[in-house]
Amino acid sequence: MAKAKNKIFDEVFKALMQLSDLAVISFINALFDTTHPPDSQVIRRNTEFPKRGGGKLFTDMVITIVSPGSQDTGTYLIECQIDDDDTMAFRVFEYAFAYGKQDLQKQDGIITLRFPQVRVIYLEPTPHTPDVQTLRLEFPDGHWDYPVKTIKVLDHSIPELMDRNLGLLLPFYVLKIRKRLHQTKNPAKRQQLAEELTAINKELAAAFKRSEAEGSITDADRQKLFDMTEQLYDHLYLGYTEFKEAHMVLDLTRLEKIDALYDELKTAREEKQEALRRAEQEKQEMARRIRELEEQLSRKG
């Protein structure tokens, strides 16, 4: 995402990839159809590569996952796009080539360059966004195709993304009404879009809870997902008066989170008080037994 106006989407995606290893492993397994165990090691790789002749190449994310015992290791390069880009397959090939070139293997006159697996995520796809983008390399004796699979976020419902274990992409779902909002100045239609966004925010809050309950993210991940959703929401809609109620849903979700923390604090305080009460009872019982022993010894003396 090279354009400055889209920088926030790039930043949020990179922040998502910094969530817990548990969350990232679940996401990678879903995105690439792999089966890394949840206790695998996640290595976030360098994403800047030198260009021949000067300058640098920048990709969005490169992640290596090492399963326990190092029996199953995979490296994954992910690009996140908001707009269609018909040069994406070439760009991804260039990034993957630059990554593999860092660790060339030479043996018996053969140079081996290992490519990572690749995916492109389109946040705001159009009817023209392909499922696969292909770079064809022509050689004198034939050609070789380099296919790049895509994920089109808004082409799926929130439950569909959840069922596919792609819940880390849900903060971007607030983009769902953006284009339609920019295309209308009709107050009634804007109000309809505001109501749709309110429903989306409620569904997102429930989805984040479900992800935590299913064990694909941690409690801390859930809060960060909510924070990133709010960050994107403010960037997209803060200036629209029609969207106050939609924002209120986010505020209520935050209050619900605060209430949950207070409940946890209250429970911990009650447990501490109960432990102190039991300790005092044990202390009093010990003192009573000591007195009884002293009395018994006194009578024997």
Describe the structure in your own words.
- The structure is a single chain.
- By secondary structure, this protein is α+β, with helices and mostly antiparallel strands.
- It has helices at residues 7-16, 21-32, 88-100, 158-163, 178-182, 187-214, 219-237, 244-300; strands at residues 41-44, 48-50, 56-58, 61-66, 73-81, 105-107, 110-112, 117-122, 132-139, 142-152.
- The strands form 3 sheets. Strands 1-4-5-8-10-9 form a 6-stranded mixed sheet, sandwiched between helices.
- Helix 6 packs antiparallel against helix 7 (219-237).
- The chain is flat.
- 28% of the residues are buried.
How large a portion of the residues is in β-strands, by DSSP E?
15-25%
Question: First CA to last CA: what distance?
Answer: 91 Å
Low-pLDDT runs: none
| Order of H and E elements | HHEEEEEHEEEEEHHHHH
Q: Considering DSSP H and I runs of 4 or more, what fraction of the residues is helical?
A: 40-55%
Shape: flat
